[in-house]
Amino acid sequence: MSRVAYVNGRYVPHTEAAVHIEDRGYQFADGIYEVTAVQGGRVIDEEAHFDRLERSLTELRIPVPMGRPALRHITREMLRRNGVVDGLIYMQITRGVARRDHPFPKEGTPPSVVMTAKRVKPHDPKMLQTGVAAITIPDIRWGRCDIKSVSLLPNVLGKQQAREAGAYEAWMIDQNGMVTEGTSTNAWIVTRSGEVVTRALTNAILGGITRKSLMALAAEAQIKIVERSFSAAEARDAAEAFLTSTTGYVLPIVRLDGQPIGDGTPGPMVKRLRELYLQFMASDQHAA
Ligand code: PDD
Questions:
Q1: Rounded average pLDDT over 117-130
Q2: Atom 18 in ligand 1: which residue has the minimum CA distance?
Q3: Does domain 4-119 correspond to CATH entry 3.60.20.10?
Q4: Strand 87-94 with 259-260, pairing
Q5: According to the CATH classification, is domain 125-282 in 3.20.10.10?
Q6: 160 phi and psi angles, rounded to 5 deg
Q7: Which residue in 79, 109, 181, 236 has its CB near the most CB atoms, within 10 A?
Q8: Is the pLDDT of residue 288 over 70?
Q9: Model pLDDT for residues 100-110, shown as the tens digit of each residue
Q10: Domain extents in the chain
Q11: Higher pLDDT, 283 or 124
Q12: Among 32, 33, 35, which is best to mutate for testing ligand 1, by the most ligand atoms less than 8 A from CB?
């Protein structure tokens, strides 16, 4: 089955899918995106992703190009046309195509809407059993990291630095020495006294949908989560560390900057939280 992409109202062969060279997403990174997981044909946390999509657009004053029923319809159509049962949906909305000039184009320029869907193999069980490594890097991003903007250059450079260091993720450190988040994931630790900690939501981090769902699942399971900042030193001294994201779910981090965290293997809390999250994904609880 050859892949199909959605571009501004049309379903086109993936290899031919294109936007104009003067799309403001291409020239100014003037746009936003969402990545949503699909498991067993279910779109996970779809409404929460739409909430965030609409929020990002509103914060950037990009008109919301279509309502949720239309977005839901295109999503289903993309899954069907691409034969995706387990995978990822990517949607991107930019301010549209206009002659290059920094201010917003005059009214009447429609936003560009693009969607792709791809199959993704289940996670390598070895990666889950052994956990992954992370490094720390300075957070050099802008002041509105709560907006899911396609402006991802610091994240791209950070992820590449992680890869070159043999690590899966880079945790970014703010000017106060505190961990903000990973380049494409939220950051968590479990302290030696058993406190499960993740940074509170501000403009400094993206409000992860996986983070949000895991917090709700933890509350149901009477596991207390503390939302506060933690330093790289506290993370290195923690009993456990892990990340959350649409693509990684709940993934143990067992080394930070080359040093083992805890005993260097995934701990009991991350295993439990991961299990809760996998059960949630397999259920129809929040899926459309
Ligand atoms: N990344 N923080 C950042 C900077 C992210 O880019 C992401 C998501 C997250 C986790 O958010 P969520 O749980 O909603 O996926 C945190 C996506 C997956 C990406 O860019 O591919």
A1: 86
A2: 246
A3: no
A4: unpaired
A5: yes
A6: -65, -40
A7: 181
A8: no
A9: 999 999 888 99
A10: 4-119, 125-282
A11: 283
A12: 35
